Amino acid sequence: MTKSSLDASGYRRRAIISLCFVLLIVGVILAAFGQIRRYAMSAIAASSRHPLKRIVMVHTPAYLSHAILDSLAREAVDYTIFNHHHPRYAAEIRDPLNGHILQKLAAHYIHHPDVGFNAWIRRIVFVRRTMLPHEQVIEIAAEYRHPAVFVKLKNKFYLVSQSGIRLPGVYSAAQHTQIQWLFTLTGYTGILPKSGYEFKGKPIRAGLALARLLRNRSYSNQIRDIDVAGVGKPSQRHPQIILVTRWHTQVYWGQPPGVRSFFEVPTDRKLEYLDAINQQYHRIDANHTFVDLRGDQVLVASSAAASQPVYAPVTPIYPN
């Protein structure tokens, strides 16, 4: 065989190999297009079989009203179906094979706490599709914030969670009186944060800490307000925190819980005082205009406008 015939034979082999390679690539591309087309058709078919009917909040707490829960569900509808800034979301939320839009919806609640009633939501547990015989439902489960206290500021009342987050809503005095099971922090003069953001400052933190200690005590229903006006202003004469009872009498609590001072007994001793006074008098004010828990003896106002002891423990008291 001559050299020219060998060259021709090698050229034909290379041409055949190249053609096979091209055909293989074309086949892969056609197969991919087929997969994409089948995916699109299945999505369209599934969407027609299971059209989106509802977006609902599930596993909700009893303390939230139907109006608040309906508003939270409406927020999801507005964000997805009626979102003018992202019109494609309407198709994505209806697509039963699209999970990315569910992640966006969950993030929306957390990243926009000041919108509507979103601040009630602490975190999203899940957002999922539930396929029923002839419809699909978007279910949203969340962990919700619990109201801990009211904060009074300029004759308006605001709900605050245990972590200090302002919850949605502004309450009038009439509305506030209808909710008897929450303490009210008074004496706060700081800045009012937006809904979903934290109240700043030592007075709020001190009031929340004391409310947490007193909430489940047997005498908690006797306490109406926790006055935190003196927090951060140490004084041997004027208590930093005052409890105001439902009879408009006062209990001088003193420094915030957990703060140690040479001039005041510790928090545990003050709680023992309140337990003992309530057991003896059935009122934590011992039927006087004020009770002072700060010292070695519990003092009350006497008729001579001076303080006198009403209760003292058997053993001497010193700060721990």
Provide keyphrases for this structure:
alpha/beta; elongated; 2 domains; 12 strands; 320 residues; single chain; 9-stranded mixed beta sheet; disordered C terminus; 3-stranded mixed beta sheet; Rossmann fold
Distance between the termini: 108 Å
Shape: elongated
- Rg of Cα set: 34 Å
Largest β-sheet summary: 9 strands, mixed
Counting copies of identical and different chains, the oligomeric state is: single chain
Structural class: alpha/beta
Number of helices: 7
* CATH T-level fold name of the largest domain: Rossmann fold
Label the CATH architecture of the largest domain: 3-Layer(aba) Sandwich
Low confidence ranges = 314-320
Helix amount: 25-40%
CATH level 1 name of the largest domain: Alpha Beta
Q: Mean pLDDT, rounded to whole units?
A: 85
Strand content: 15-25%
Structure description:
This protein folds into 2 domains: 52-144; 147-311, 3-Layer(aba) Sandwich (Rossmann fold). Helix content is 35%, strand content 23%. By secondary structure, the protein is of the alpha/beta class. The longest helix has 47 residues, at 3-49. Residues 314-320 have low confidence and may be disordered.
List the helices and strands and how they pair.
Blueprint: H1 3-49, E1 52-58, H2 66-80, H3 89-94, H4 100-111, E2 121-132, E3 135-144, E4 147-153, E5 156-161, H5 173-177, E6 183-186, H6 202-214, E7 223-227, E8 241-245, E9 250-254, H7 267-281, E10 290-292, E11 298-301, E12 307-311
Parallel strand pairs: 1-3, 4-6, 6-7, 9-10
Antiparallel strand pairs: 2-3, 4-5, 7-8, 8-9, 10-11, 11-12
